[in-house]
Amino acid sequence: MAPSQHRGCSVFLCFQLCFIVSYFLLCTNKVSSQHYDYFACNVIKNPEVKNYRFCDETLDVESRVNDLLSRMTLQEKILNLVYRAGGVARLGIPEYNWWCEALHGVGATGRGTNFSSPIKAATSFPQVICTAASFNSSLFYTLGKVVSTEARAVYNVGLSGLTFWSTNVNIFRDPRWGRGQETPGEDPLLTSRYAISYVRGLQERDDGDKYRLKVSACCKHYTAYDLESWKGIDRFHFNALVTKQDMDDTYQPPFKSCVVDANVSSVMCSYNQVNGKPTCADPELLTGVICNQWNLNGYIVTDCNSIKVMFKSQHYTRTPEETAAIALKAGVDLNCGSYLSKYTLAAVQEGLASEADVNRAVKNNFAMLMRLGFFDGDPRQRLYGNLGPNDVCTPANQELAREAARQGFVLLKNSRGSLPLSPTATKSVAVIGPNANVTTTMIGNYAGIPCRDTTLQGITAVVPTTYFSPGCANVACVTARVDDAKRISAIADATILVVGADQSIETETLDRVDISLPGQQTFLVQEVTKVSKGPVILVIMSGGGMDVQFAKDDPKVTSILWIGYPGEAGGAALADILFGFYNPSGRLPVSWYPQSYANNVNMTNMNMRPDPATGYPGRTYRFYRGPTVYTFGDGLSYSRFSYHLVKATNLVSIPLGEQHFCKRSSCQSIDASEQTCKIAKVKVNLRVKNSGRMRGGHSVLLFWTPPNVHNSPQKQLLGFKKVFLTPKEQGTVRFNLEVCKHLSVVDKSGNRKLALGMHVLHVGSLKHYLMVSI
């Protein structure tokens, strides 16, 4: 872990300050330790700053930033183009480390956060792929709110910055991708909805100020980034060849939603090239799309050392100075790395870049810090200033971690009489497998230091007679040790096999080759199943899907439950599901393929749509044509939910002028930009009933099959709503759709088109037909 970037105060200064404020701090017990150089405009440390206009918070940000830039030299500006920003000591601006992470809790991976006294941990929520399986937008938002509160508390004690490079909104295109666990899955709509809710939760302030931020979020990695290291090809050298159609209907929508709908304050460009250009050097992608089309109100940051990568690894430029200039002129404002601090001055002197380019970037960076209150003096005197150690790892936050895990667990198979286990009739359980008693594995990557972990304790709290055998030395499971595992399974009332992956199998810099259970885990499951006395529950801990067709087909494997990487409360949440204290409601956010998919499909093929000429089957449930083990949206409950269509639009007619081309000729589609098209609406109202005996949540997924034009998706998610119903209770779910926005497809040129003809809306087995005509 990197040391904090913040220096401690002097003994003399601490004595003076403690004399003034210690009584308040001790009585509130909110902030017990502070570092006094983690914010600018500190009038106690430097009284002169009260005369600087950039320290006057009553002025608008534009005026403040312009004043600040007018006082800085070119060299001082350049030192603030990198994540370890040099500040301007003579103006009372301390150094600042921009690199903080908050993917699923305040993270320890960013160099700008340091867990130490008085805050040594933070709530570790489930990894994103698990949370996304809840299909619950309000949960996504709540998690963001709680994470930002804990982040502010850590900042207030001088142990973190306020700029968090989260969240990851890349599409989980291929099951082998090591970082797919960080994402909300394979669907553009689910990913977009997650991004909007989580980013708003992080950034929005309780006082309603739309311009200032609670913390700054970041959507990454822009764009078409989803390969780490696979069969000798790595992310630093990979050139993603992407069609205009796939770019606009799959890879870009989550980023657009981040900027346009969530008003995210930062976007991070990726390592890879897209169609021959490094993303951090492409002015069309950065300035053209993010800034000009989407109107980003914030800054663009590079992935760490990606500017260096384009010179050293991709050989895209001839000199380091040219590299720095190209990145700046493309629209980069901040370099996670050191290239801009080392080579920008020479680039300006050589005429490759201008001071205006530097000014634009520095202005965006300092404007961000001003929106966060970094230039408003002591944060303890501001909104959120009273947050401290007592606001981190609270009982409520830890219970939320447990609830988020429970909502994200996906029950994939459940034979009659298997789950839930009776907490009274079950006298003993055998818990077997390499992931059966893990802690670090549960929190996934980009994690912080959890408040506490629950593993087997969750099960032993319900059934004290719990036998344990790992079965393998680790998840690689080179050799399965089955004798002890078989012995305890043969005597226990129920067997729980916890298998899957961890960060040695899938993570940043590491993609999978196989998508079956690693090593001899399959053999372990099969051997244990043969001798088990009671039901066998297979629990899979992983980010990506696994080929578990053998277990799906085996009647002795009575239940299959996927739990992602469930966070610090994973063990307790698992027990809640297994013993029926909580009704599972998660649904898969990704498709699970057979191993043959990994054998036959090249991971570097970025095309979403199938190619019959080559046998390429396409990707994700939207386009893939081939067998699956389980598919996107699959998930069972202990209750049965039924649907009744209450109201739905049957016909949409788009009025066009008499001179319109399609009035004189047959058209399969019209431009979705037509003004008359934009006002058309579709309503779908459903009644949902819990017909079971147990209260539970249920995610209602509305899918759509458009007419087969422009190589359209075979099926696509249009919306989702989460409802919680008691036994026999009914609830109403309403979907309000804009025809041109929600029922349009993208053609080969990247233009959005409204297909004419019969559209089919699906909710479960219920289908509704909608005619769109002119």
Descriptive account of the structure:
The protein is α/β, with parallel strands linked by helices and 774 residues long. The protein folds into 3 domains: 11-391, Glycoside hydrolase, family 3, N-terminal domain (TIM Barrel), CATH 3.20.20.300; 409-600, Rossmann fold (3-Layer(aba) Sandwich), CATH 3.40.50; 640-773, Immunoglobulins (Immunoglobulin-like, Sandwich), CATH 2.60.40.10. 29% of the residues lie in helices and 17% in strands. It contains 24 helices and 27 strands. The strands form 8 sheets. The protein has a 6-stranded mixed β-sheet with strand order 11-16-15-14-12-13. Strands 18-27-26-21-22 form a 5-stranded mixed β-sheet, with no helix packed on it. The protein has a 3-stranded parallel β-sheet with strand order 3-7-10. The model is unreliable at 1-36 (pLDDT under 50).
User: What is the CATH topology of the largest domain?
Assistant: TIM Barrel
Mean of residue pLDDT values: 94
For the largest beta sheet, what order do the strands appear in spatially? 11-16-15-14-12-13
Number of domains: 3
Low-confidence stretches: 1-36
The span between the termini is 62 Å
Assembly type: single chain
Looking at CATH, the homologous superfamily of the largest domain is: Glycoside hydrolase, family 3, N-terminal domain
Please report the total strand number as a whole number.
27
Main beta sheet, described? 6 strands, mixed
CATH class of the largest domain: Alpha Beta
Rg estimate, integer Å: 27 Å
